[in-house]
Amino acid sequence: MADINIHAYSLFSIPISLRNSGSDKVIAVGTGFFYSKNEKLYFITNWHNVTGINPITKEPLSSHGSQPHQIMMPVLVKDEFIDWDYVEFDLYKDESNCEPDWMVHPIHGEKIDVVVIEFDSVLDNRIIPVNECKWDLDYPLEISDDIFVLGYPKGLSVAGHLPIWKKASVASEPQVHYNGLPCFLIDTASREGMSGAPVIYKRTGVHFKKQAGKVDVKSTIFGVLWNFVGIYSGRIHGTTELDAQLGIVWKKEVIDEIIEGNTYDVLSSQFKKY
Asked: Which residues lie below 8 Å from residue 52, measured CB to CB, with a gap of 6+?
């Protein structure tokens, strides 16, 4: 049997199933990934995934209005390739479901649709944090760059739980905040289940560094560049899904800001009623 070559970046993404306490019924699906900082392990996904609530309108995302309490996800067993273990963990610190166990942005809260969950280090040898890869950091993202959202559209996957690479292009200036928040827009036809996915860029050809806005010819390199650029959190909705096929990507810097802010979410009574 021929060897199967799996791209290393395909191992970053993890599909998540969101459930109520004490129930095996899946009420929503999404994507997440791991991140490491200060010798600690963190799980990254969207605020709307863990709450079931639209962070802008504050309305429930599903017709049943159910709010998740647990996450179940597969974790690759490295010693037995393409074999998976299943891990589940509670989203709240106690059985009353009043104290969220996720951190939000210390300034913008859920307006930045990203949460960070400190994770048990027992998984350290079974996962790959996205920031422990060697990225081409000297070549920042530019408008029109090709990028890929590594997620699970409509819950689809390959070989059990490997992600689908959904191609997109950078649609707004990535160095400029969209709507006054640290995010940018991408042009892609994305689908449910991709929320929380890592976003990476791939740039092929001749590359230059810039110094003070000028091209440094001496820095010329040839080949393929890769970089992790952020977290996908869904589409901009109009009156129909065809109005604007634009998605939102939160810049990767928000992860460190959330970890350093160490601010746990406090759900208001209007959320709890769902």
From this structure: 18, 27, 28, 60, 61, 62, 65, 66, 67, 68, 274
Distances (CA, A) of 165 to 136, 147, 190: 19, 9, 11
- pLDDT per residue over 84-136, tens digit each? 888 888 999 887 767 899 999 999 999 999 999 998 766 656 678 999 988 98
Radius of gyration of the chain (CA): 19
Q: Which residues pair with 19 in a beta bridge?
A: 26, 70
Cα separation, 250 vs 47, in Å, equals 12
Helix (H, G, I), strand (E, B) or coil at 72: strand
- Cβ atoms of 202 and 147 within 8 Å: the answer is yes
Residue 47 to residue 108: CA distance in whole angstroms: 12
Q: What is the DSSP string of 202-254?
A: EEEEEEEEEETTEEEEEEEEEEEEEEEEEEEEEEPP-SSTTS--EEEEEETHH
Cα dihedral value 124, 133, 113, 95, nearest 10: 0
Region class of 106: left (phi > 0), else alpha (psi between -120 and 50), else beta: alpha
Q: pLDDT tens digit string along 1-35?
A: 456 678 889 989 999 999 887 677 888 899 999 99
Nearest to 64 by CA among 16, 92, 27: 27
Residue pointed to by tokens 């809260």: 109
